[in-house]
């Protein structure tokens, strides 16, 4: 096989493998009534949508049994910067655990799957990620979290098989 064809084949296999990767399975069943409300982003993986986004949060509100409105907001430039808001919807895609969601953006033109991998028994924090496991985040009911607890939960994310090297605090 010519070298260029071998390189192309290897690259296509790598892309196919990466595209089919999934996040670890959720560890707990979500009580949707307890899950509703405000979640503050403590750690996240950088992404284009949240460039220059500080103190991000999201408020989940039930619309129907498995259908939700989500209002996402963040401050641009700094924690005290101008607030921008983005509205989206989500629906449960796994009613066995209630921990897998599909969010739709721009009136359904863009869809993304998210999984809640772990959640505190008292619903004080959650570890969530895209369904491919590549964009994990730590969210909390409180806008702040101690450094010790952040370290503990970052380690928990790594134990669960999520990439933690790029996590940032905003």
Automatic annotation (TrEMBL):
<keyword id="KW-0446">Lipid-binding</keyword>
<keyword id="KW-0998">Cell outer membrane</keyword>
<dbReference type="InterPro" id="IPR022272">
    <property type="entry name" value="Lipocalin_CS"/>
</dbReference>
<dbReference type="Pfam" id="PF08212">
    <property type="entry name" value="Lipocalin_2"/>
</dbReference>
<feature type="signal peptide">
    <location>
        <begin position="1"/>
        <end position="21"/>
    </location>
</feature>
<comment type="similarity">
    <text>Belongs to the calycin superfamily. Lipocalin family.</text>
</comment>
<keyword id="KW-0732">Signal</keyword>
<dbReference type="InterPro" id="IPR047202">
    <property type="entry name" value="Lipocalin_Blc-like_dom"/>
</dbReference>
<feature type="domain" description="Lipocalin/cytosolic fatty-acid binding">
    <location>
        <begin position="30"/>
        <end position="169"/>
    </location>
</feature>
<comment type="subunit">
    <text>Homodimer.</text>
</comment>
<keyword id="KW-0472">Membrane</keyword>
<dbReference type="InterPro" id="IPR012674">
    <property type="entry name" value="Calycin"/>
</dbReference>
<keyword id="KW-0449">Lipoprotein</keyword>
<dbReference type="InterPro" id="IPR022271">
    <property type="entry name" value="Lipocalin_ApoD"/>
</dbReference>
<comment type="function">
    <text>Involved in the storage or transport of lipids necessary for membrane maintenance under stressful conditions. Displays a binding preference for lysophospholipids.</text>
</comment>
<protein>
    <recommendedName>
        <fullName>Outer membrane lipoprotein Blc</fullName>
    </recommendedName>
</protein>
<dbReference type="InterPro" id="IPR000566">
    <property type="entry name" value="Lipocln_cytosolic_FA-bd_dom"/>
</dbReference>
């Amino acid at each position: 096989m010519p070298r260029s064809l071998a390189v192309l084949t290897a690259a296509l296999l790598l892309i196919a493998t990466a595209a089919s990767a999934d996040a670890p399975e959720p560890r707990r069943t979500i009580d949707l009534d307890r899950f509703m409300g405000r979640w503050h982003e403590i750690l996240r993986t950088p992404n284009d949508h949240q460039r220059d986004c500080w103190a991000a949060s999201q408020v989940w509100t039930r619309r129907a049994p498995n259908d939700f409105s989500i209002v996402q907001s963040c401050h641009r430039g700094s924690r005290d910067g101008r607030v921008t808001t983005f509205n989206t919807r989500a629906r449960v895609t796994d009613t066995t655990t209630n921990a897998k969601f599909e969010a739709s953006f721009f009136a359904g033109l863009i869809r993304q799957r998210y999984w809640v991998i772990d959640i505190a028994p008292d619903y004080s924090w959650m570890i969530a990620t895209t369904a491919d496991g590549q964009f994990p985040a730590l969210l909390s009911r409180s806008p702040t979290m101690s450094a010790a607890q952040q370290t503990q939960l970052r380690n928990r994310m790594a134990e669960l098989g999520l990439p933690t090297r790029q996590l940032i605090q905003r």
